[in-house]
Each structure stands twice: as structure tokens, then as C-alpha cells.
Amino acid sequence: MENDWEFFVDAKQVTISSLILANYQKLGLTEEELVLFLQIDSQLQAGKNIPDIEKISQAMGKASTDIYSLMHKLVEKKVLAINTVSDENGRETNQYSFKGLYQKLVALKRQEEMTTSQAALSVSRAEIYKSIEVEFGRALTPMELQTIDMWFSQDHYQPELVKLALREAVLNQVYNLRYIDRILISWEKQNIKTAADAQKLLVKQREVKAAKWSKPTSQSKTKDKPEIPVYKWSNRTEGEH
User: Fold this and answer.
1) Which residue ranges does the record annotate as region Disordered (predicted)?
2) DSSP assignment letter at 180
3) How far apart are the C-alpha atoms of 19 and 11, rounded to whole Å?
4) What is the span of the domain harbouring residue 205?
5) Predicted structure pTM score
6) How many domains is the chain partitioned into structurally?
7) 176 vs 132: CA distance, rounded Å
């Protein structure tokens, strides 16, 4: 058993990103091309600058011509690059690189993230339309739908920001888009881009208003003071002490 274990240790391991295994079909690779990538990359990781095609041919059970054909497909798909480089003595050798594969993988993940973000944004916009209709208690007119669409397409307001402006309109019992539009324009002039920034501004405004209402006026201060009776000492009778 110990010798068997040493056999596996001596064989060494090949490192491969799980992202490649999970997305090779999305990257346009067939199963044969994936196996060829593993074969070539394992030799590169082992320190070989030029892969042993005969060894790969035996491992995959294919003729050398088929292996070269598969390699050509990888080059066409910009997954594999074979560049000619010169050493210190001017001797030219081929250099194998899978940099293109990793670049395609990064581009794929970015595209998926963008698609997910756009889908989430679309849902948020749909929620805005529905929320306004619910608060207004009626269906939106075509003109109102166009106005809301312009908030997103031309003014580039975030759905969360529009939702917060809607909440402010409802709190003030004003149920029209003009009022919401004035709120959004006011925030834009104050360079407020996110709902978080708008929320901070609203909290500050309410604190200022609360402080203003709680501050007593000079008249109220006078009224709050207890009345002090005034005695005219000259009018006191002689019997008073």
C-alpha cells in the first residue's frame, strides 16, 4: 500500500481552475478540446516548454495528426497561442500559452455579471411602475409612463432613488409625477446620485426642522415664566409687618 501511495505522489498533480471545468462549453470548447488543454497544460506545469505530442496522442488514443488538428482548432478559437521566440543564442523555439483562454473566461464572467445586473435593474424599474400605480390608486397614463421612462433612460436616475422620491411625495400627500420630478431635480442639483445619499439629506433636513420647532420663541419664554406679584410698599398699612 505504501508503494502504491508513493506512485500517486510521484505522478504529481495538475492544477486547473474549477471555472474552466464549469464553463468550458460556454467558452466554445468541446470535450476533446478540453482534454487536450489538460494534456498540454499538465506538461507546461511540469516544466516542459514544448509538449510531447506523441505522449498526448497515446494518452488520448488518437493519431498525432488528429492531435495537431485539435491544436489548430484551439488556436483558431484564440484559446491557445503558439509564438516563436528566440533564446540568448538566437535559437528559435515555440512557446505555448493559454492566456487567451483565461481572457475569454474573464470576459465571460463579466458578461454574466452585466446580464445579471441588467436583469435586476429591469426588475427594479418594473417595481417602480407598479409602486407608483399602487400609491396613486390608478393606472398610469401613457404620458406618465413616458416621463418615468425618461427618468431612467435620459436622466439615469437609479430606481432606488425614484422609489425614495415617491415615498417623500406620499408622505407629503402629493400624488403626481411633477412633484416627484421636482424632488429628483432638487437632489440632482445637490449632486445626490444614490438613495443612500438622499436618505442622509432627508434625515438632516428633518433634524433641522425638528430643532426649529422645538426652539422656544421669546414670547413663549415670557409666558412660561411664573408670574411674580408686585407690591407697592408705600401702600402697606401700618399694621402690616
Assistant:
1) 211-241
2) H
3) 24
4) 113-213
5) 0.55
6) 2
7) 9
